[in-house]
TrEMBL record:
The keyword Signal applies. Residues 26-56, 137-156 are annotated as: Disordered. The lineage of its organism: Bacteria, Bacillati, Actinomycetota, Actinomycetes, Micromonosporales. This is Secreted protein. It comes from Micromonospora lupini str. Lupac 08. Residues 139-150 have a biased composition (Low complexity). PROSITE patterns: PROKAR_LIPOPROTEIN. Keywords: Signal. Residues 1-20 form the signal peptide.
Amino acid sequence: MSARHLLLLPVVTVLIGLSACDSGEPAGPSPTASAPTSAAGAPSASPAAASPAAGTADCPTATALQTLVELPKDWSFGEVKCFKDWATADPQGPTAGDGVYLFRYVAGTGWKYYDQGSDWDCKDLGISEAPFCVSEPTKSAPKSAPKPSSGTATSAKCPSAKTLEALVELPKGWTFGSVDCVKDWAGADPEGPGVGDGSYLFHFVPGTGWKYYGDGSGYDCVDLGLKEAPFCIY
């Protein structure tokens, strides 16, 4: 029996030594899974494209420009071409002519309607050349179609000349004089060099505000849903 104990003693000693070694080395903290702060590989949301009125000078879409003007019934914008801070939009629809709508980007404000027609004088636009203007003076392009509003005038009350001036970019040196209002229509008489006999016509759109509709003279009151007004014939 004594020989048996002597044989077991070294084994016990080894086990005690191993136990001492294990206890001398503190076990490191067990790794814990932390919740990921973001999904791996999830693409970050890209900023939404700003509308013309939002202040971006990027070339606007046809849909974006359509929000700046009230087009005649069944009209829409087709191709949009941009050059520096100018943009043209081709109107499409019944009775649409060969002219285009011209918009300009105004820093701090956004895109604003400027004119409608063709063959503008590049000098008048402050540029040397562009696909939509000519470098030498030509007769001023006829104006006979809707223009835009920035939508800032939201009250249906008869707007002031200053309020309507904020909705369009008038030619240099022009301002609005008297304003005549009938129901949800307003006619503003332009004043300045080279001004003709026509007036600017604006229409109040519920939920949006005043929007440019057209400029010229001889509007048909029936087309405007009116019986009579200073700016239409009946």
